């Protein structure tokens, strides 16, 4: 690979507004987002407290912020029921569902390579 080709390849990451990794992948690849998406993939409509129980080491504040972020990217939907007390359920959107097979491949890679990676830590 020539220096010019290398420079052109690296250039695509410098555009903050146009870089897919910075603007798309980073939004769902955070510490909690993928776990939340997996919980929602395994359960149709899931309440906040059920998600919190499934991922006990996430704080309610961080869970709420992460859910809002996933909702703003249209990966999940939030449905509020007019009941007393109010009931809110979260579920995957079609866009979110389209991401699950890709996450499944990444999860399988992690399972396959976890021993080797942790051995070198």
Write the layout of secondary structure elements.
Elements: H1 3-11, H2 20-28, H3 33-42, E1 46-47, H4 48-54, H5 60-72, E2 76-81, E3 87-92, H6 94-119
Antiparallel strand pairs: 1-3, 2-3
Helix pairs in contact: 3-6
Gist of the model:
The protein has 121 residues and is mostly helical.
Strand content is 5-15%
Which geometry do the CA atoms define?
globular
Estimate the mean pLDDT confidence: 90
Radius of gyration: 18 Å
Strand order across the largest sheet: 1-3-2
**Roughly what percent helix?**
55-70%
Structural class: mainly alpha
**Major beta sheet summary:** 3 strands, antiparallel
End-to-end span in angstroms?
32 Å
Beta strand count: 3
Individual helix count: 6
Order of helices and strands: HHHEHHEEH
Residue stretches low in confidence (pLDDT < 50, at least 5 long) are none
Give an overview in words.
With 121 residues, the protein is mainly α. Helix content is 61%, strand content 12%. The protein contains six helices and three strands; from the N terminus they run H-H-H-E-H-H-E-E-H. The chain has a three-stranded antiparallel β-sheet. Helix 3 crosses helix 6. The longest helix is centred in the C-terminal third of the chain and has 26 residues.
Which short descriptors sum up this protein?
mainly alpha; 121 residues; three-stranded antiparallel β-sheet; globular
């Amino acid at each position: 690979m020539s220096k010019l080709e290398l420079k052109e390849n690296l250039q695509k990451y410098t555009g903050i507004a146009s870089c897919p990794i910075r603007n798309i992948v980073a939004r769902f690849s955070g510490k909690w987002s993928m776990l939340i998406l997996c919980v929602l993939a395994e359960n149709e409509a899931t309440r906040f407290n059920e998600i919190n129980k499934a991922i006990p080491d996430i704080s309610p504040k961080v869970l709420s912020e992460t859910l809002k972020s996933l909702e703003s990217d249209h990966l999940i939907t939030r449905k509020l029921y007019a009941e007393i007390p109010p009931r809110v359920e979260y579920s995957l959107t079609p866009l979110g569902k389209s991401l699950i097979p890709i996450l499944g491949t990444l999860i399988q890679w992690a399972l396959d390579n976890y021993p080797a990676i942790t051995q070198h830590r």
